[in-house]
Amino acid sequence: MTRVRAHDVGTAAGTESAEPRTAEDGAGPGVGPARPAADGPVQELRAFSRFYTNLIGALDYSRHLYVPYTLTEARVLYELAHSPRLDAADLRTELSLDAGYLSRLLARFEKDELVERAPSERDPRRQSITLTGRGHDTAKLLDERSQEKVGALLADVPARDQERLAAAMRTIRGILSAEHSPQSGQSPAPRRPDVVLRPPHPGDLGWIVQRNAALYASEYGWNEEYETLVARIVADYAAHHDPRLERVWIAELDDRPVGCVMCVRDDHDDDQADHHGGTPATEAADATGAAATDTATGRPATGPSGAAPDRPGTARLRLLLVEPAARGLGVGDRLVTACIDFARATGYDDMVLWTNDILAAARRIYQRHGFTLTAEQPHHSFGADLTGQDWHLRLRD
User: Fold this and answer.
1) In what order do the strands lie in the sheet with 372-381?
2) By CB atoms within 10 Å of each CB, which of 120, 125, 276, 336 scores lowest?
3) What structural domains does the chain harbor?
4) Cα within 13 Å of Cα(43), Cβ side
5) Tens digit of pLDDT for each residue in 211-224?
6) pTM
7) Is 193 helix (H, G, I), strand (E, B) or coil?
8) What average pLDDT does the chain have?
9) Is the distance from CB of 137 to CB of 199 less than 8 angstroms?
């Protein structure tokens, strides 16, 4: 069954093909025989589907959002933007699309320079689909338009009713997306939570600062020096980042941010004037359990040979964080994968990061992705005695 995301204005719960109301649906005179009471939920769901598709403009999607794309085309772009490693077969299965229709749609996207197709690294018999820079810009525009429309829809809804609405949508998604085997009489099997990666929305950069500070204070007792450092790094990204070379991802679960990561060009000039007198290189890492995040200190970072990695062609992974409630879902791995894939596609030669040895679970994530430890040094930062570590990943042979 196709996943349903309440925040995606182009996706409707229980959406069926666009159909006019008929006598069968109770539109007026000529109603057929009364339906059995058991069909009540069926009629309710169909009525809700018609209501919701009209409400969000799904029947005239391109005019509703002022974009030259159908609902299906917009949804394909959405999936490609939020799942870095998809191939044509994945898309076909995820969206329940006809193979021929999807092939024609992707051919159009390729002609419009929105996507690139190549043999999949996992299976050369399959076709890997990735967004181009233009494709990412288009997907971002569609996402922004959807956010605006949904925001306008909720603008006059009281906050308490918004919470009720969100809870009701989560209930609908949970019931309709659960796998059920009526023949065996088994109860619905638990479904893996639907975590998506997306660009930051207004307020998300502030959330990165707040959650880093709160989680590290709670789990490691770090003081306000760390919050100050993260705030500077995030503010610098907001003011000066190059969207062609640098990016932030937000991991979202049930319409709430639960993780983040940043990929930036490694440049010491961005980090000068730290109160420790060095160059802070900050990372944060999920892991599957113990550590909330993985971070750096205010000492100069070192590269694979111990020298400052300020040469062109080096990317830095920063501020990787996963909320405690989302640990164990593979969110940290997905965020690191997105960061590495972006760095490779952008043309970086290497990726570096700085972490602390107390974050063992975080280090396991880095090791799984091929990072190697290149240097260690004790330091005192954020009110704690720590041992910092430099890690390096070669992106090109």
Assistant:
1) 195-198, 247-253, 256-265, 314-322, 350-356, 384-394, 372-381
2) 125
3) 61-173 (1.10.10.10), 195-394 (3.40.630.30)
4) 13
5) 999 999 998 999 99
6) 0.50
7) coil
8) 75
9) no
